Amino acid sequence: MSEVAATGISVLLVDDHPIVRQGYRRVLESQGDLHVVAEADNAADAYGAFKTHDPDVVMMDISMPGASGLEAIRNIRARSPRARILVFTMHNEAVLVKAAFNAGASGFVTKSSAPSAVVNAIRGVARGERAMSDDIAHVLAEDSLSAGSVLDQLGEREIEILRQFAGGATTEQIAAQLNLSVKTVQNYHYLIKTKTGARTDAQLVRLAASCGLTRI
Amino acid sequence: MSEVAATGISVLLVDDHPIVRQGYRRVLESQGDLHVVAEADNAADAYGAFKTHDPDVVMMDISMPGASGLEAIRNIRARSPRARILVFTMHNEAVLVKAAFNAGASGFVTKSSAPSAVVNAIRGVARGERAMSDDIAHVLAEDSLSAGSVLDQLGEREIEILRQFAGGATTEQIAAQLNLSVKTVQNYHYLIKTKTGARTDAQLVRLAASCGLTRI
DNA sequence: TCCGGCTTGGGAAATTTGCCCGAGCTGCAA
DNA sequence: TTGCAGCTCGGGCAAATTTCCCAAGCCGGA
């Protein structure tokens, strides 16, 4: 691995939008100590680029098409436990943040953050620290006080049914898929709404999407 | 208005993510002929900045919180018909593209485009041309062949009800908001599902989201 | 003028929801 | 070991919603 103090911090950028990557690249490289050594526009390429360039930090947008960003994190970390991954996204759901850290991320910064906060997060992650932007810290703080996230109160079965439902499946399809009676699926549906406080199906779909359970 | 040939092209950046704006700014300014004269992070500020700086081109991400980006375009164009607005977003739904052009946009470029395509679009828009990225041209071409998008078959009232429904509003809330009977809203709900072919409410929400009608 | 489409709602049958219940299972703790 | 708690699974039943069908007013275009 490169000597951080001596040669600066090497960064692998992962984002599916080329101009966004180029923008980040310029912002980072204007800092002097940050060097973008490679880019990737999907989760699959990310690991290849990681192996080739062995960057100090992977800066990754986890809302990409194809494989989930969380999968990509797990993937990289499983094969290279020393990898430092900074998640960089517009989402700020506590569930997603926790999922990212559980998957092995070292930091989590939202795109709403000031550029200075982003580059400082990169430096922190490169030093082996855990880094997150202020808004994420607040979200997690709120979350820890409010006794866990929405999804934490759901059982495995409930989450699976919520995922399929939010994905557009009908009650019959879910019942057939999971070998349940329609009535049971209906009951779960009701239970999920009760537990999450969603008043309409649409709110449930949005909840699932904002928790990263489904992508739209 | 500035003399494009003599002084370059002045650009107003509108995007709700500061680091994204800063990234774009650097990409644009590295071109030599493009100058970012102001930034705004919401639709309301965008018009203020437009009045103050009178830029040649407004480069705008229309997926921002608060007022719809389409509203912002209409707003600016209504007050300054000479304004050139280049929409720059990750969405590539034909409905949204057409809506943007109808609202008065001069160009539409997706974030998937190569940076060179983006800067060329800015130059084209500044010259008064209509500009769009290749993928958008393909989407519109497909759309014109496939006899219109899903949303095209919906009336204004239907779209408004779909938007509110997908946003999480209950039937009662929509009825109250629009001064309709609950029965009418229910009928619209059914009609929308029939017209769009959605079998569940969840599919409807996803449809609305994928058309840029709601954000999750 | 007439036709077609949008908007607004009524009606009635079919279906789903909301909420209650019980039963089997598992893990955990006293 | 017993017992409790929580998950999973489904029945029951009244209330609500959905699904269609229909009608009437309005407006713009042929």
Automatic annotation (TrEMBL), chains A, B:
Residue intervals of the Response regulatory domain: 10-126
Any Pfam family hit: Response_reg
CDD domains, sorted: LuxR_C_like, REC_NarL-like
Entry keywords, A to Z: DNA-binding, Phosphoprotein
SUPFAM superfamilies, A to Z: C-terminal effector domain of the bipartite response regulators, CheY-like
Domain HTH luxR-type: 147-212
Source superkingdom: Bacteria
Gene3D superfamilies assigned: 3.40.50.2300
InterPro entries hit by this protein: CheY-like_superfamily, NreC/VraR/RcsB-like_REC, Sig_transdc_resp-reg_C-effctor, Sig_transdc_resp-reg_receiver, Tscrpt_reg_LuxR_C, WalR-like
Modified residues (4-aspartylphosphate): 61
Descriptive protein name: Response regulator transcription factor
